[in-house]
Amino acid sequence: MQKTILIVGGSSGVGLELAKHYVAEGHRVCITGRRDPHLPGAVFFSLPIGASADEMLSGIDSLITVFPGVQTLVYSMGFLQRGLIDALDSQALLTMTHVGLVAPMALASRLKPLAPTPLKLMLVTSSSQYTPRAQEPAYAATKAGLGMLGASLVRDSGIGKVLVAAPSGIRTPFWSGTDEDTSTMLDPGWVAKQIVQLSSGAFKYRYAKLLRNPARVEVVETLDNSFAPIT
User: How does pLDDT run across 73-129, given as a tens digit for each residue?
Assistant: First the structure.
């Protein structure tokens, strides 16, 4: 059955690999990101997620109008600025907060009442979700918040199943311009394949870590459909 899938952060990396998979399966796919990947069979929408909350929220409202009927939200967008907290300027802090947390919350709040079926969420976080790092205070905080957002939304009876996937470093353009050694990082195609597998089947909530050296999946928690939401 054809599904309508919105992938936020689909210009490259895991988001793009997931988009390729779902397009190949015949689903209706919309990609947002920093640039158009020109993926045949997918729609691209330029969504401004940055320091300006007004522009971001206006863009989200426009996106929902242009691409209606979303059944699955895949959120894989990331933004990283490293430095101790006093070295991060206000624009960096606002952008990280908007990209990492405000945008997925705003999307979920708008998509839930419009979805033709209970909205399914696939939230791609990071090992920073559970690993504190002095040079990534805002990034780690937003990733932890995104994971908790998923764990909280699953307790909403109006939400469908929720997957939170936390990869541990992926070889993508995300690291361009940094001195990060990506040689041991996870392949985005492999990560996307694991996310597809983790999201399949009957469950209400699943949280998994995608680890490296060696590449492997650790399912931390799964709640089945008999889970009674806490209201």
Answer: 999 998 888 899 999 999 999 999 999 999 999 999 999 999 999 999 999 999 999
Q: Which residues in 119-150 are b (16+ Cβ under 10 Å) and which e?
A: bbbbbbbbbbbeeeeeebbbbbbbbbbbbebb
β-strand pairing of 216-223 with 205-211? antiparallel
Model's pTM, two decimal places?
A: 0.94
E-only strand ranges, 33-182: 42-45, 72-75, 119-124, 159-167
C-alpha span between 91 and 161 (Å, rounded): 34
CA distance 221 to 112: 24
Query: Cα–Cα distance between 56 and 47 in angstroms, integer?
Result: 7
Spatial separation of the C-alpha atoms in residues 176 and 199, rounded to whole Å: 29
* Cβ-count burial 185-215 (b if 16+ within 10 Å, e if not): bbebbbbbebbbebbeeebbbbbbbbbbeeb
Class at the top of the CATH hierarchy for domain 4-223: alpha beta
Residue-wise pLDDT for 37-84, tens only, equals 999 999 999 999 998 999 999 999 999 999 999 999 999 998 888 899
Domain boundaries, the chain: 4-223
Of the candidates 166, 163, 167, the residue with the CA atom closest to the CA atom of residue 205? 163
Structure tokens at 15: 């988001």
